[in-house]
Amino acid sequence: xxxxxxxxxxxxxxxxxxxxxxxxxxxxxxxxxxxxxxxxxxxxxxxxxxxxxxxxxxxxxxxxxxxxxxxxxxxxxxxxxxxxxxxxxxxxxxxxxxxxxxxxxxxxxxxxxxxxxxxxxxxxxxxxxxxxxxxxxxxxxxxxxxxxxxxxxxxxxxxxxxxxxxxxxxxxxxxxxxxxxxxxxxxxxxxxxxxxxxxxxxxxxxxxxxxxxxxxxxxxxxxxxxxxxxxxxxxxxxxxxxxxxxxxxxxxxxxxxxxxxxxxxxxxxxxxxxxxxxxxxxxxxxxxxxxxxxxxxxxxxxxxxxxxxxxxxxxxxxxxxxxxxxxxxxxxxxxxxxxxxxxxxxxxxxxxxxxxxxxxxxxxxxxxxxxxxxxxxxxxxxxxxxxxxxxxxxxxxxxxxxxxxxxxxxxxxxxxxxxxxxxxxxxxxxxxxxxxxxxxxxxxxxxx
Length: 448
Ligand SMILES: Cc1cc2nc3c(=O)[nH]c(=O)nc-3n(C[C@H](O)[C@H](O)[C@H](O)COP(=O)(O)OP(=O)(O)OC[C@H]3O[C@@H](n4cnc5c(N)ncnc54)[C@H](O)[C@@H]3O)c2cc1C
Fold this sequence. Notes:
By secondary structure, this protein is α+β, with helices and mostly antiparallel strands. The chain folds into three domains: 182 residues, Acyl-CoA dehydrogenase/oxidase, N-terminal domain (Butyryl-Coa Dehydrogenase, subunit A, domain 1), CATH 1.10.540.10; 112 residues, Butyryl-CoA Dehydrogenase, subunit A, domain 2 (Beta Barrel); 150 residues, Butyryl-CoA Dehydrogenase, subunit A, domain 3 (Up-down Bundle). It has 14 helices and ten strands.
């Protein structure tokens, strides 16, 4: 049981001053294991909240509320992760970026906080929280470090969800407790030959007497230096084309599994991105994830959800870049006898940027709520990711300019946010791919 849960549980039960009591305790940023039962215990869930506790309520009797209105548990997530990020991650951000390495102690703390098992049910050692809570955590982390944020995002929204949704009972019992407490996961779909055209992948799986044999290469795999658990997509029946694609679980250390190359990147440099080779890697038959030939469907579903996570990473990044610069222009830097943020030319840019961040956040939380409500959210997720990454790029770029030379040097965080923002338009489907999805769905809606 993580210390987060212990800190929050009594406060939430009593419905007392959660925020202030958390601030008062040194370990108060420990949040994650707020159980499903806790969610259900909340006396007054927000109207139209789509958390499991009121999913079945008669929605016609409920009053609509603002999209960014969080439940008590979600608010606690926001405040405690924000505090954890500024107390524990912020002091290390610059060094991790320069070293292009994720600090091991931070990974351990993420597990301790319960942030690596946000949606994993309590019976498997996770926090048993809702999807929006995970999205809030990802956004708060990105406000301080988008590299830590993507580590948590991939692990929660792609890897954990794959096992929770498609894993057999044996796989869940074996791996979910580890994924919640100690084992980082990676999601291996892309290959040198297949990026946007993901299902053109060439990695093959073969059925053997005891299980399966996997051979091929994966590229661009996030978390691969830290991970011990890999969800791998390989084609078990190439004659069937993409309908042969199947998902497997591979553990680091399996014979023939090697991390071949660590990429040196423009941004999110503390997040590891590697090439992985599978040379006849043998895995037991229990490591089949879900059903044969369903891998492409699983990947599509998981990436649709994952895109909301990346969108949240981008809104968090945009907010972080904005706040960092806003503090500087309104408190630190004077020219012509006044703070540079007081010139109207600056104020209008700051105001415009804040509006765009708010619009992106509305798309993100609307997509998350629709997913939780069991509604079709594919277009919403694509719109959120597309727009949030555009806003992140624009605002973090302007923030560098607002800070002048101080924005350009590698002492502060402005230039790092700008570099980090570029990835939002690339991974989990490029911006063109999001536009393709949006246009395809619009055409379905409007074509006669
Ligand atoms: C840092 C990083 C981390 C990553 N992490 C992971 C991970 O953990 N797991 C994983 O499986 N993958 C991961 N990826 C891979 C990522 O998802 C792919 O890079 C992405 O899908 C794009 O593929 P590509 O790089 O091959 O670009 P390409 O597909 O070669 O695209 C090149 C250009 O062509 C455009 N284009 C391609 N097809 C179309 C089309 N039909 N219409 C219009 N334009 C098109 C694209 O928009 C892009 O501008 C990661 C990548 C990076 C850079």
